[in-house]
Amino acid sequence: MIDYEAIRLIWWVFIGVVAIAFAVTEGFDFGVSTLLPLLGKTDVERRIIINTIGPTWEGNQVWLILLGGAIFAIWPAVYATLFSGLYAAMLLVLFALFFRPAGFDYRSKISDPRWRNAWDWGLFVGGTLPPVLLGVLVGNLLLGLPFHLDQDLRTFYDGSFWGLLSPFALLCGVVSLLASSFHGALFLKWRTEGIVHERATQALSLLAPLLLAGLAAVMLWAFIGIDRPEITQMAATDAPSNPLNKTVIAVSPGWLQHFLAYPLMMLAPILAFLGLALAWLLGRSPATMAAFLCSSVGLASMLLTVGFALFPFLLISTSDPRSSLTLWDATASHTTLLLSFWITVIFLPIVLLYTRWVYKVLWGSITEATIAKDSHTLY
User: Fold this and answer.
1) For residue range 119-161, what is the model confidence (pLDDT) as tens digits?
2) Are 214 and 174 in contact (CB under 8 A)?
3) 88 contacts: CB under 8 Å, gap ≥ 6
4) With 0-12 CB in 10 A as exposed, 13-18 as middle and 19+ as buried, what is 262?
C-alpha cells in the first residue's frame, strides 16, 4: 500500500509527465500550424506542411484532454479554480482549437483558392492562439491568481480576464509562441524536402535568438522581480486535504532563493537553454532528428523549471495567500489517488507504445511526389 504522502508526490510527477508530453507533441503541431501560411506560398507547399502533422495531430491533442481529466480527478480544487475563474480564457482556447479539425477536414473539399486560404488562416489561428494563452496561464501561475476559499472550501475568483494580461504574463505568452514555432520549424525541416525544408531552416535562424532572449528575460524577471510565497505552518503532508490549514507569507525575491536552496533544481533552466541552443546549432546542419530531440529536451526543461519553481504550490492566491493550493492539501482522497494510479500504470504504457507504433508506421518525408500520389486521400 502506497501511503498518502507518497501517492500525492507520485501524481505530481505523473501530471508533470503528461504536461511535458503535451508540450512536446502538440507543441510542434501548433508550431507547424502557425508557420503554415508563412512558409507555404503555393497550395502544394501548404499541403506538404499540413500533411507532416495530418496523421497525428488528433492523437497529440488527446494529451491536452488527458491533462484536463487528470487535474479533475487528482486535483479537483485546482480544476474548480482554473476552469471557473479562468472561464473566458479557457473558452477562448477551446474556440481557437475548433479551427483545427474543421480546417484539416474541410480545406481540400473545394479547390477555390479563397476557400483554402481562409482555412489556412483558420489553422494559423488554431495553432497560434492556444500556445499564447497557455503561456499567459503559466505566467499567471508564477504571479499568482486572485482567488480565495470560504470556510466551506468553495472557490471565489476575484479577478477578470483582462487582469490576466499583465506584462510578465504576456511575455510568457510570446515565449510560448516562439517555442512552439521553433519546435514546429524543426519538425518541418525533419519531415520535408526542397523549398519548404529551406524555408524552415531560414525560420529557425529568426526564431532561435528571439526565443533564447525571451526565455532569458522571463527567467530573470521571475528570479529577481516576483515574490514567491513561503509556507510557514501547515498540516502534515499525509493529512486530509484542507488548504486553509496553513499559514503562507510572501518572500522577496523568493524564486531565486528557492532555487539556490535546492541547487539541483538549477539543472532544469540550464538544460532549457542548452537544449534550445543546441537545437539551433544542429538545426543549421543535416542532423534534423538530433536537433528536434534537443528542442524536445529544451521544452521539457522549461516545464520542469516552472514545476520546480512552484513546488509544492499548484495555484498561488494573491488575494488570500492561505487559500493557495498545494499538492499536499488540494488532492482527492487517498482511495481515488490509488485507484487512478493503478489505472495509469496499466494503460499509460499501452498508450505510449501505441503512439510510438503510429509514428513509426506513418513516418517519412512529405514531398510534392507524396501529394501527387495520394492527392485524394491526403489533406
Assistant:
1) 999 999 999 999 999 999 999 999 999 999 988 888 889 888 8
2) yes
3) 161
4) exposed
